[in-house]
Amino acid sequence: MKEHKIGYYFIVMASVVIVLAGIKSASVIIIPFLLSLFIAIILSPLYNYFNSKGIADILSVTLVITVFILFLAFVAKLIGTSVHDFSANIDTYAQKLSGYYQLISTYAASLGIAISTDDISNLINMKQAMKFATSIIQSMGSMFTNGFIIILTVVFMLLESQYFVKKVEFADGHQETIAHIETIFSKIKNYMVLKALISLLTGVIVWLSLSFIGTDYAFLWGILAFMLNFIPNIGSIIAAIPAVLITLVQLGAMSALLVTLLYTVINVVIGSIVEPKVMGKGLGLSTLIIFLSLLFWGWLLGIVGMLLSIPLTIMAKIIFDANQNTQWIGVLLDTGENINK
């Protein structure tokens, strides 16, 4: 009996490896599909609102997609020039930062610690940090080069959304299955919509605050804050690094300290106070799972996978929690705060 179980586990593990290999090889197709899925989930409340007002399905979808395209075009126009100018000036900013490396080296020498400027440069590589920040934004932009396919997929998903549960009901006929699917979709939609709104709020606050301070490319860092806010804890730190460094070389140490304080306050207020109250603590992931999911989805689907890593893991956790046979996996992914309560 024991040997039978071991054989079963090996078969399951082999199946998982085969599925992951298939996903990785088909990432060109899967990434646009996932982007379409998340966009459709986020836009679904607006589509449902138009439907509730008695507007026909086709007209509702047309209105939603028009609003989305106008918003996307506005953001792309503002980002395009900023990314190009910033990429052209990275070397200049890196040279300016080398002066601070010399100050750190001199201060360390006064304490009897021998640190060369090259060592500091390798430790705090501004060019790499800046290139990583812009590559995240550019990679998301490149995904929308197949914009027509993504938008078309979103249209079909929105039109199909209201009939999906009815199809399952007709095919299965069991009320428990229907309730199970409705619960999963409801939780996923609530999470994605609320997370997108909170991330948008974070990005707007960062943009306006950095514009007031006078940091270059404030809108760019606002977009980065919006995108990386989908990654709890780690995302806000990654988003802060390029903004702090650019402020340091542009406006000086005091302004850089102010920007650091700004990101800390935003992270504490929105991440620790606003978000738990709005979204609740039931969907929390442990910090270890956040980090591992970031590595895993990044390896599987690239930078886009890193940005979607937490929503994908949250979706998996919701599905695991909704099934008694897989609830133990959901518990392993959780923070563990509610175990002793």
UniProtKB/TrEMBL annotation:
<feature type="transmembrane region" description="Helical">
    <location>
        <begin position="256"/>
        <end position="274"/>
    </location>
</feature>
<feature type="transmembrane region" description="Helical">
    <location>
        <begin position="6"/>
        <end position="23"/>
    </location>
</feature>
<dbReference type="InterPro" id="IPR002549">
    <property type="entry name" value="AI-2E-like"/>
</dbReference>
<keyword id="KW-0812">Transmembrane</keyword>
<dbReference type="GO" id="GO:0055085">
    <property type="term" value="P:transmembrane transport"/>
</dbReference>
<feature type="transmembrane region" description="Helical">
    <location>
        <begin position="97"/>
        <end position="116"/>
    </location>
</feature>
<feature type="transmembrane region" description="Helical">
    <location>
        <begin position="219"/>
        <end position="249"/>
    </location>
</feature>
<feature type="transmembrane region" description="Helical">
    <location>
        <begin position="193"/>
        <end position="213"/>
    </location>
</feature>
<protein>
    <recommendedName>
        <fullName>AI-2E family transporter</fullName>
    </recommendedName>
</protein>
<keyword id="KW-1133">Transmembrane helix</keyword>
<feature type="transmembrane region" description="Helical">
    <location>
        <begin position="55"/>
        <end position="76"/>
    </location>
</feature>
<comment type="similarity">
    <text>Belongs to the autoinducer-2 exporter (AI-2E) (TC 2.A.86) family.</text>
</comment>
<dbReference type="Pfam" id="PF01594">
    <property type="entry name" value="AI-2E_transport"/>
</dbReference>
<feature type="transmembrane region" description="Helical">
    <location>
        <begin position="136"/>
        <end position="159"/>
    </location>
</feature>
<feature type="transmembrane region" description="Helical">
    <location>
        <begin position="286"/>
        <end position="308"/>
    </location>
</feature>
<dbReference type="GO" id="GO:0016020">
    <property type="term" value="C:membrane"/>
</dbReference>
<feature type="transmembrane region" description="Helical">
    <location>
        <begin position="30"/>
        <end position="49"/>
    </location>
</feature>
<keyword id="KW-0472">Membrane</keyword>
